[in-house]
Structure formats: structure tokens, C-alpha cells
What we know:
Low-confidence stretches: none
Helix content: 25-40%
Distance between the termini: 36 Å
Mean pLDDT: 91
Radius of gyration: 16 Å
Number of helices: 8
Order of helices and strands: HEHEHEHEHEHEHHE
Number of domains: 1
Strand content: 15-25%
CATH superfamily: Vaccinia Virus protein VP39
Shape: globular
Strand order of the largest sheet: 3-2-1-4-5-7-6
CATH architecture: 3-Layer(aba) Sandwich
Structural class: alpha/beta
Amino acid sequence: xxxxxPTLIWRPISYVERLRPGDLFFATQPLEVxxxxxxxGFLAQHAAEHPDRNFLGVERLLGRLRKLDRKGLRAGLTNxxxxxxxxxxxxxxxxxxxxxxxxxxxxxxxxxxxxHHKHRLVTEGxxxxxxxxxxxxxxxxxxxxxxxxxxxxxxxxxxxQRFTPAETPPALARIATDFEKGFVSRGVVIQRxxxxxxx
Length: 199
């Protein structure tokens, strides 16, 4: 909580020191992180169904973050915190090594023009960062509607000896993001993958 008004939005004292999950949550539990939480439809439901885990939602747009904040407060979710930040920055500079049990990356901006591909979140370098922040056997879950970006995602996580393919549990696949609901209503095919950290 910050100030006099209740909020789940967490504002770090420093944006250059790694966060300590114990400072964010009342209970010490496995941590799951969603990069790009949107309006929070997925994360609010997932956190409500798993009070035995802690959840951190990352979103750059303040309006979306406030919407998720209201959802979490209405539901009384003490295991949910939110941060306004670029996803890549959080993974590289703020998440401690071996601190995340599951990382959710759903419908990141595909930057479809070839000259803009350098702006994509999921790259070879990003996969290395994900390996660092996941606990041993931690899992990264991926979803997208973009076939070409999906091929890139699966290629970078399948490369080397850092990850092995994993299954997305049906209960997890059942929880749709707000973007996903819109895509499905228009008949767009959703592609999913998951990779478990080795070592």
C-alpha cells in the first residue's frame, strides 16, 4: 500500500536495485510474473484462483494498470502487486536471479514490419535473461496471434540447452486475456507454447 489510498501499484524506492519479493507481499510464496498485463483479465482471475502464490503484473500504460488495480482491490487479492514499467527493463534489471517460478508473456506487440523486429520483446538475448530470473524448473508461458512472431518465440527458447518444451496446463489455458477474448470472438487462432528452465 502507498500513501493514504489503498493500491496494489508498487513504486520502488530505486529503479536500479533489484527488488526483494519479500518487501512486496505479506506471505513468502512462489512468484509468478505477467509481462504486459493489459486490462488484467487474466492476472486477476489467475491470482484469485491461486492464493498460495504471489503475482506481479507489469504494465507500461497507467490506465490499464489502474483498471487492474481496481479489479484486484475489489477481489481482495493480497497476493497481487503491480508495477508500471517496461517489461524488458524489469526482467533485466529488477528481478533477482532465480526468483520467478513462472513468467507469463501473452500477446506482446509483434512489431510486424521487418525493420521494427528489433523492438520485439522476445529475442535471443531476452531468452537468456528469462533463464536467469526463473527458478530451476521454472516455466515461461507464451501466447500470441501472430504466426511469424510465434515462430521466433519458439526458435529462441528452443535454441541451446537452457530450456525444454513444457505443457500449458488446461486450467491455465482456460483463463483468457482481454486481448485473447477479442481475437477468439473474431475466429483468430491463438498459438501457445511453454518452456521449462533447465539447470
